[in-house]
From TrEMBL:
SUPFAM superfamilies: CheY-like. Residues 124-222 bind DNA. Keywords: DNA-binding, Phosphoprotein, Transcription, Transcription regulation, Two-component regulatory system. The keyword Transcription regulation applies. The lineage of its organism: Bacteria, Pseudomonadati, Pseudomonadota, Alphaproteobacteria, Acetobacterales. This is Response regulator transcription factor. It comes from the Bacteria. It comes from Brytella acorum.
Amino acid sequence: MRILLVDNDLRAATNLLQIMRNNGFTVDHTTSGREAVEILRHYDYDVAILELTLDDIEGYSVIREVRQARVNTPILVLTSLSRPQAKIKAFAVGADDYMTRPFDTAELIARLQAILRRSRGLSTAQVHIGPLQIDLNAKQAYVSGDAVHLTGKEYAILELLVLRRGSVLTKDAFLNHLYGGIDEPEMKIIDVFICKLRRKLQQKGAGNLITTVWGRGYILREDQTGRVERVMPSEPESLTA
């Protein structure tokens, strides 16, 4: 899960960044509401965590402008404002959830996971595609019940493919998801990650679950028989070594 944290309290933000990263989330941080609006308009996040009392504009304005721009990224408000009127206004302008400080870490993680499930139309944390199962809470993949040992980036790629199955994802989308525009490697690294991920899934008996759409990217899509349609040839041998 990739998160944008919008908080002008550097001490609180540093603590929250550590919590999020310790729980396996990729997190970008900004202190500016204006910058947050532009980031959310141009980059893809699973969730935004937003403080209402920012220095440049109110958090309510951030939510309002993002929604007016037709950005559907779920927004969880995390603030010290606990009065009912603040919650009502936040929900009225388009917030998806609201928590007050001090907060319980386990509750925050649970709410983030629930937001992700709702935004993807999922009723549980378990996603099944043919023999493949993804546990979104545990961040673990299984094939026919057998655990697949993936690196953090391999899992992040697989999770993104699963949550957006049926859609072609470009290499830029993967880079953005994995690195958020910070110290991004060359685009060909995505081919390497995909190749290794395919090999691990195939070794567990999952078959070819990831299709290459040449000139565009990758897609995960299964047909009536549980096989992915339009499977293309494998990557060059230099990428599979």
